Amino acid sequence: MAGAAYDDRDGVIWMDGEMVNWRDAKVHILTHAMHYASSVFEGERAYNGNIFKSREHSERLIASADALDMPLPYSIDQIEAAKDEALRASGLQDAYVRAVVWRGSGEDMGVASAKNPVRMAVAVWGWGAYYGEAKMQGAKLDIAEYKRPSPETIPVHAKAAGLYMICTISKHKAEAKGCSDALFMDYRGYVAEATGANIFFVKDGEVHTPLPDCFLNGITRQTVVQMLKDKGITVHERHILPEEMTDFEQCWLTGTAAEVTPVGQIGDYTFEVGDITREIAEDYEKLVRS
């Protein structure tokens, strides 16, 4: 299965209430989402056969769909049942779970799409460390040319496909430079997030992380903030200027795919993979498997 194209794999995918052969899980070329980014999704991980924070992900999926004016025809309980069915059908215990909602093909093929059905699918596959060896050694990040947009321009708190366009561009450029990812500033010039993960810094035994007022407040981010507070570590959620990275000692990324990944370098700024980073990575690993 390793290296196989994602449209040419064995297994089944949950689509609109039915389990469909993996290779037959298709949509029409005039699907609205393909032309106008009318799509939202969740990335989730299962550990030992259980999806971590599953219900919170389902709640966010509905909230994201609402933000894009796509009333989802499934309740949270129905979404949970769909994910459970897809996970069990995969035969995997440790897996990545992708739930996606989109505007399908219908009577509308312009910007407006109110007449088109809202569809949903859940696919499950095996996926190891998102950043490969960087998970242990410390990832190297580029600094993106694009910036995270203002909440006045786009529904920034939705996990929406359209918001990832600049992420793909920025990550491609980063990888071409030998980096694992890219760090975005926001529209005001503050440190924001990586292309698919939130970011944390350590200075003098205290943790600093950007205030998520114009980007997604990740479920893993929220989990790690609470874990730090439970350990008695002070967490400052605030606006961070890029030049402050000069004085930060440690850095890590959080996300469902990234889990807790240490960062060794961002542009010309360097960080050590220190005790707090290692501890929180180990504690997170224990939590998701508890």
From TrEMBL:
Pathway: Amino-acid biosynthesis; L-leucine biosynthesis; L-leucine from 3-methyl-2-oxobutanoate: step 4/4; Amino-acid biosynthesis; L-valine biosynthesis; L-valine from pyruvate: step 4/4; Amino-acid biosynthesis; L-isoleucine biosynthesis; L-isoleucine from 2-oxobutanoate: step 4/4
Reaction(s) catalysed by this chain's protein: L-isoleucine + 2-oxoglutarate = (S)-3-methyl-2-oxopentanoate + L-glutamate; L-valine + 2-oxoglutarate = 3-methyl-2-oxobutanoate + L-glutamate; L-leucine + 2-oxoglutarate = 4-methyl-2-oxopentanoate + L-glutamate
The enzyme's E.C. designation: 2.6.1.42
Keyword terms of this UniProt record: Amino-acid biosynthesis, Aminotransferase, Branched-chain amino acid biosynthesis, Pyridoxal phosphate, Transferase
Enzyme kind, highest EC tier: transferase
Lineage top rank: taxon: Bacteria
Any single biological process term in GO: L-valine biosynthetic process
PANTHER family: AMINO-ACID AMINOTRANSFERASE, AMINODEOXYCHORISMATE LYASE
Assigned protein family: Belongs to the class-IV pyridoxal-phosphate-dependent aminotransferase family.
UniProt function note: Acts on leucine, isoleucine and valine.
Protein name in UniProt: Branched-chain-amino-acid aminotransferase
Species of origin: Shimia abyssi
